[in-house]
Amino acid sequence: QSVLTQPPSASGTPGQRVTISCSGSSSNIGSTAVNWYQQLPGTAPKLLMYSNSQRPSGVPDRFSGSKSGTSASLAISGLQSEDEADYYCAAWDDSLNGYVFGTGTKVTVL
Amino acid sequence: EVQLLESGGGLVQPGVSLRFSCAASGFIFSNYAMSWVRQAPGKGLEWVAAISGSGGNTYYADSVKGRFTISRDNSKNTLYLQMNSLRAEDSAVYYCARDPGSRKGFDAWGQGTLVTVSS
């Protein structure tokens, strides 16, 4: 059972802005950094955002992240067809003494 | 180039044991913590276990604690996951992932290896 809650789906037309939320608690998001992963169909996950809002090399600046209290969000600006994928938030949980992933959000480009 | 290559998956019966390996290359293996993450068919990601760079510290998800053991051989640049008393709910693609530390996320992933637990 996932500890971090995400909406199951999000969608938009090309060029639109889409935002994905990730809700946690004081033992995870509230006390440590949030990371985001993108999983394209049939492939391994890829680190998309780390330390709440840092993009690894090669990730377009269309992607941005933020955190406030026990929630985090990922925004995709200028949505493109290649952004169609599953997105997961993740964080360390001090109570569980382990990593926790979000429930995942499927982004569809209409 | 950083590469992680898992092996050891397959079809097994409930109750048996299985060991996965993850061969690492392209980086100084001992400098990084490593994790195993799994994904059941059509489901989300689930963290399974983690190990520090030296191997001295290990962490497990409650769902596998007492049944799975994570280990590493830094002389062979290889990560392992020993899985005992396998259950149907352990059926999943298992990924090994590199952890640079400081809660910066898993910055490299293997291609995954599938285990199906079924009678």
Oligomerization status of the protein chains = heterodimer
Cα(first) to Cα(last) distance of chain A is 30 Å
Low-confidence stretches of chain B: none
Percentage beta strand of chain A: 35-45%
The whole-angstrom Rg of chain B is: 13 Å
Question: How many individual β-strands of chain B?
Answer: 11
Structural classification of chain A: mainly beta
Summing up helix and strand content along with how strands pair, one would put the structural category of chain B as mainly beta
What is the radius of gyration of chain A?
13 Å
Note the main sheet of chain B: 7 strands, mixed
Properties at a glance:
heterodimer, A: 110 residues, mainly beta, 6-stranded mixed sheet, 3-stranded antiparallel sheet, 45% strand, B: mainly beta, 7-stranded mixed sheet, 4-stranded antiparallel sheet, globular
How does this structure look, described?
The complex is a heterodimer of chains A (about 110) and B (about 120). With about 110 residues, chain A is mainly beta. Chain A is about 0% helix and about 45% strand. In chain A, strands 1, 3, 4, 7, 8 and 9 form a 6-stranded mixed β-sheet that branches. In chain A, a hairpin with a 4-residue loop joins strand 7 (about 85-95) and strand 8. The mean pLDDT of chain A is about 95. Chain B is an all-beta fold and about 120 residues long. Chain B has no helices and 11 strands. In chain B, the strands form 2 sheets. In chain B, strands 2, 4, 5, 6, 9, 10 and 11 form a 7-stranded mixed β-sheet that branches. Chain B has a 4-stranded antiparallel β-sheet with strand order 1-3-8-7, with no helix packed on it. In chain B, strand 9 and strand 10 form a beta hairpin. Chain B is globular and about 40 Å long. The mean pLDDT of chain B is about 95. The interface of A and B includes residues 44, 50, 98, 100 and 102 of A.
